[in-house]
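Example 9 (inverse folding). The structure is encoded as follows.
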């Protein structure tokens, strides 16, 4: 526990951390990777190069300082981060390295304002927060490896099937190379794929949502190919699309993530997705149909047009069920889309449409997609009076901002 003096000093730094947070985290990564380049085998290079990681970490540091006297308030965020850390292989020995370079970065950026007293207090606070992460992650590691079919670290999986779902999305069906059982998962969770790509100096690790229901004997991921393969985001997706074939072996971590469907509730569930954000929604939809056949589920998907709309047939097959309704929004439909009635609404999902077509007051909402889509859906639901308890969302990568993320930042490596 921290003494009152330390807590007071840490809280006094909140305005400074808010103002200089991104400068501090940018310097932090420069220092840490300069001294420990081996950590680049773990950290997401795309997030680093696009400054998303720096922004997310700055928000996390700010929140930790603000709530240093009430860490229970940020425990949900700690658990979100811990899921990512477990999936990536972050271990206790990494925390002292992070702490050392974070304090060095604060000193570099704040200069004389970073007095020895402040650095000592921040060091103590970091130690408490790091201990909380290590404890939570230890439980997650134990659960991941101790469950039936579970494992620690990365396990070899064979690509059993590779299926093109649209012009930009391809599914990969993964089965364990050792032909043994695999860990179950909750609808909405993800796995990490670790790739060693020729001509790339460091390993790349990416998380992909599982796009099928649990209990199938395989994991399925559905990956969007990024248009510009020269950009950091495109290196992995293009490698998967171009170089990975049926029979290829991939290194996979056990499923993780806290964005999951609550199957203990029987309220209507509304699943909203944009683009490749439909992958966890498909898993949730199939799970509701399989284990909660009486529960009303509304599946709403937004895409440009049928060329980039993946997994349409799977949703259509379930839409004939009495408890399932689905709607398709195209903002740039083709002439063929129009002539064949391949969509329900031209344009974007709006607050007015949601108010007219979904049970706003008593439903649970789950949504995933590009950040602009997420912001629009979140704002519409809030304007309609939907409570925070009814709203559940997922980001691919570090959390950005839905109304500045409602001040909840998620940092991932």
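The amino acid assigned to each position is listed next.
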């Amino acid at each position: 526990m921290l003494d009152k003096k330390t807590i007071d000093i840490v809280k006094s730094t909140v305005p400074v951390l808010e103002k200089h947070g991104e400068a501090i985290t940018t310097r932090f990564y420069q220092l840490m990777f300069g001294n420990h380049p081996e950590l680049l085998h773990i950290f997401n290079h795309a997030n680093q190069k696009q400054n998303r990681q720096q922004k997310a970490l700055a928000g996390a540091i700010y929140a930790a300082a603000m709530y240093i006297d009430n860490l229970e308030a940020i425990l949900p965020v700690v658990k979100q981060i811990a899921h990512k850390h477990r999936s990536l292989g972050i271990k206790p020995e990494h925390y002292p390295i992070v702490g050392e370079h974070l304090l060095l970065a604060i000193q570099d950026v704040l200069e004389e304002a970073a007095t020895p007293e402040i650095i000592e207090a921040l060091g103590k606070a970091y130690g408490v927060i790091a201990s909380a992460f290590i404890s939570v992650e230890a439980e997650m590691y134990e659960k991941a490896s101790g469950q039936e079919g579970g494992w620690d670290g990365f396990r070899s999986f064979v690509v059993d099937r590779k299926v093109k779902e649209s012009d930009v999305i391809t599914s990969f069906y993964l089965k364990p190379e050792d032909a043994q059982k695999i860990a179950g998962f909750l609808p909405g969770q993800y796995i990490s794929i670790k790739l060693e790509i020729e001509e790339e100096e460091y390993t790349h690790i990416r998380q992909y949502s599982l796009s099928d229901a649990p209990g199938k004997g395989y994991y399925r991921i559905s990956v969007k190919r990024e248009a510009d393969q020269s950009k950091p985001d495109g290196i992995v997706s293009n490698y998967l699309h171009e170089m990975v074939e049926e029979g290829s072996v991939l290194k996979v971590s056990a499923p993780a993530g806290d964005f999951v469907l609550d199957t203990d509730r029987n309220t209507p569930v509304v699943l909203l997705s944009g683009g490749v954000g439909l992958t966890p929604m498909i898993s949730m939809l199939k799970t509701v149909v399989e284990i909660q056949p009486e529960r009303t589920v509304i599946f709403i998907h937004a895409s440009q047009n049928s060329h980039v709309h993946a997994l349409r047939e799977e949703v259509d097959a379930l839409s004939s069920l009495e408890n399932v309704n689905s709607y398709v929004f195209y903002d740039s439909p083709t002439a063929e889309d129009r002539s064949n009635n391949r969509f329900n609404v031209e344009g974007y999902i709006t607050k007015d449409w949601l108010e007219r077509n979904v049970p706003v007051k008593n439903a649970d909402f789950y949504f995933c997609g590009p950040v602009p889509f997420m912001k629009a859906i979140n704002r519409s639901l809030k304007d309609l009076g939907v409570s925070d308890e009814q709203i559940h969302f997922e980001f691919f990568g570090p959390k950005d901002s839905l109304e500045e993320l409602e001040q909840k930042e998620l940092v991932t490596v």
